[in-house]
Amino acid sequence: MRFPVRLPQRLLACVFLLAALSAFAFANSDRDRDRTQVGNDIVVGPNEEISEATCFGCSVRVRGHVTSDVTVFGGSIVVEDQGEISGDITNFGGGVRLDKEAKVGGDIAVFGGHLRRDPGAEVGGDVTNFGGPIWLFLIFGLPLVFLGGIIALIVWLVRRFTQASLPATA
User: Fold this and answer.
1) Beta strand pairing call for 60-62 and 77-79
2) Domain boundaries, the chain
3) Phi-psi domain of 61 (left: phi exceeds 0; alpha: psi -120 through 50; beta: other)
């Protein structure tokens, strides 16, 4: 059996498809220069420029120019000689090393790792270093323990109020 499709429905489908494609193209127009990796290191070469670097379980090495932020979870960030990051550096669970003549335009925040900074490195913003594993526990572990407690309380309450009561014997 064939269902008739009207012209307005076809036009509406085409308009919707074109709108979705143009929104996707607009959203990804500047994303071509972003780099996001999981488990694979990101290397910015000496004559290379990218807009942003985000890495999960890997490291970022900058010899060129990053025009925005560098964020790493569980890895390290190394800004080598004449490497430049115009934005902020954020690292969770790893170290940051700034070599001689490295430039960071924004802030540096290191949680659960160490910051090694050459005296010739320039930092335009604030430097925050919460070194050691206790900070990782406070940032990630404590909220998980709290959430586990809430779930245990809910399970206990549900079991308490849904248990069948036994009749009293005389």
Assistant:
1) parallel
2) 31-131, 133-162
3) beta
Q: Sign of the C-alpha dihedral, residues 12, 13, 18, 21?
A: positive
Q: What is the DSSP code string of 45-81?
A: -TT-EESEEEEESS-EEESSEESS-EEEESS-EEE-T
**What stretch of H or E contains 98?**
strand 96-98
**What does pTM read for this prediction?**
0.64
**Separation between Cα atoms, residue 89 and residue 111, nearest integer Å:** 11
pLDDT (tens digit per residue) in 62-80: 999 999 999 999 899 999 9
Report the C-alpha gap between 113 and 76 in whole angstroms.
9
Task: Give yes or no for a contact between 63 and 42, defined as CB atoms under 8 angstroms apart.
Answer: no
Angstrom distance (rounded) from CA 84 to CA 95:
17
**Largest distance between two CA atoms of the chain:** 90
The residue written with tokens 């206790």 in the block is 134
Can you read off the two tokens belonging to residue 107?
Answer: 């802030």
Instruction: Report CA torsion sign: 11, 17, 19, 25.
Output: negative
